[in-house]
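Loading example: each entry is read as two labelled lines plus one structure line.
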Amino acid sequence: MWPEASRVRVFMPFPGLEVPHLCAQCQDYPCISACPFKALSKDENTGAVIVDREACTSCGACIRACPGTVPYLHPKDNKATICDLCGGDPKCVEVCTEAGYNALTIVNEGPSIHRKLYSRDPVETAKDLAVKLFGEKGEEVIE
Amino acid sequence: MSPGTDPVERGTVQNTSGTPGGYAGKWLDIDLTKNKIEEIKFPYSTLEEYFGGRGIATKILWDRIADKWTEIDGLEPENPLIFATGPMTGIYPGARICVSGKSPVSNGVVGSTAATEFAVEIKNTGYDGIIFTGKSPKPVYLLVTDDGPELVDASHLWGLDGEKTLIKLNKEVKDTLKKRYPRVGLWKAPGSMYVGPAGENMVRNACVMTKLCHAAGYGGYGSLMGSKNIKAVVAKSRNMFPTVDAPESVKLLWRKAHAELIKVSDFRRWGTGHLGYGAGAGTSSEPIRNWQEEWHDETSIGVNRYMDRFWVKTKWADFNCTTNCMKVSCIKTGPWKGDITDVPDYELQAYCGTNMGIFDPEGNVHMSTLMDKLGHSGINGANTLGYAGELYQRGILTEEDIGFKLEWGNVEAFDKLAHMMAYREGIGDVLAEGTYRAAFKIAEMKGLDPEELLKYAVHVKGIEIGAHGTRSDKDYTHDISYAASVQGGDHTSVAVDGYNDMSGALFYDCAVFCTFTARGPSAALIFDFAKAITGFPITLKSWRSVTGPRIINLQKALLLMGEMWEPVKDDDNPPRFYEPLPTGPYEGKTTDRERVDIRLQAYFDTLGWDERGIPKKETLERLNLADVEPYMAKYRL
């Protein structure tokens, strides 16, 4: 197991405020256009962003271009890492089903401009959730 | 194998070299007085013989300070403070860490565990655990990253409550990592454990806190941490878990374990807090007004009242946890606006609720939050507050002694007293010694016979008893549950029959994972899991007959060497547990003393102890504990 290498990471900047963080697949793919080395491309079937690990130079341009700072450099090879939906057969869904939780299912959704709104820094999302859960106090729990 | 010898150089037979599966392989050995940080390793054989967590911590304590165990107090710099993971930590569902040392409360060893991502992070930085010795000249926190360990000045955090400490640490460490690794992207929050004001001020039964409302509570290790000037330990890694011995088997077993765990739904739905009403009205084993009663039928404290008014989130899990026993509660209006805690769980519903005569969920959520913020143990520290409540009721402690009226159910009064205890002000300074020691101090203050005050002190071996009574005999705790346990009043590690105990809490505390994620999967599955991770030829039988008893014998030896408790006489329940229950469906019932005596002897016998509970020579030899024998001889008649 490798928590920081998972392409689906759950952030918890304050206890009880868990925020799943992964690629939301923006319609305009700012990460792809930001890559100076053309290492990023869109999978036509799934819409996921595919990283060519040979071409990636670890410059971090995609991370800066992403509205949610979703990509990260993999702890092992230092290359840009983004959820690739396991080629359309996501392992996270498989294990969730195998273990009996059935919390994750595959849905087929068309592209939408609103997708981009879900690409956010998890700490910013947590700050909003904090207010929703804790009221005024929520404004103090994350610095 | 002689005490005091460096475990690295100790020449035990090594039939296998290298690091077994599931272990990071190294430990941090930190001398705070000399500001020296070293890495140490334990031989393969030591890991196999003591596994991890509570087991390895007891072994470390034996090797380092057995020869001065009787003389040193738990709060002296020589006493090591140990944080220990186990080979199953983070891999088996429900990650926890074990905190230990010579207990400032019992003078023995308590393996006190807490659920926290700190366990996962420290292991992934490459360390199975940390041993702190000495005392730092100024407040510090330990930060461990993939770059290694460092002691960071914590003067700016000293004095802060638990909540503020956590908020500041999260921000500070996040910024540090961002500065050091500007290009890698975002990191998840670090794992941390810390002390509140109670730990800083060495309230003897204070706990080591984590994640706002999780705690390593029993044993008083918060005071030991405070005595060393350690405000917090923090870890963050980008590395993976240590490799396991049989990865394919582990993958399969992991799925099998989860398939069983999903079926255990009571805690997932209601948390342990459903007992707040259940243990009172049903099993009649819930502490009320310092255990004067154990029955109530107050529906006000029912789980639905919390759910409807305070729960803002019904599921909250730690890393790789399937049980989700935590829920998030928050008070949004009134004087306690902004109080955030968990369910509260059953223990705190009882100890920060009914045991103070508080049957109002709002007051209960507030007292639970307060105890967590102050770094008091919500069980142990709260037991002491309840004890003070009864002394006030009986007129032993007066309004003059306390400074105000301490009436049952008065949240403001108990709130005030909890602060006084954390900051050692007025009568709080006396109560900060914990229930047992406070009894003696108050007896002296009042010119009374200590027995008069011990009558109302609900503890075993100084460890204030968890919120499960024995008188109705309807809960999971019975006759010798606390009386025979090497961890005294600890409700997470009760004695059963000396054989089955070994595959219960002791194993989970050594492995180190949560008791609640052991509910569901069979013992056989859990031991297969242990074997697949480590590669040790470990079985349920080998653990119950050799490894488990070895650890319990060593804990027992150190408890005896603490010389605070008289054999047999103190292997008993507190006087209150022999008073008949005054109310409820089990009115008149009490703990059966004859049964306690019989079961205690059977317990001693099963573990290879003599009739006074002293480990026999042949037992120690059989368990490869021959070096303990010279210390035990003097305790035998």
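The longest strand of chain A covers residues 9-11.
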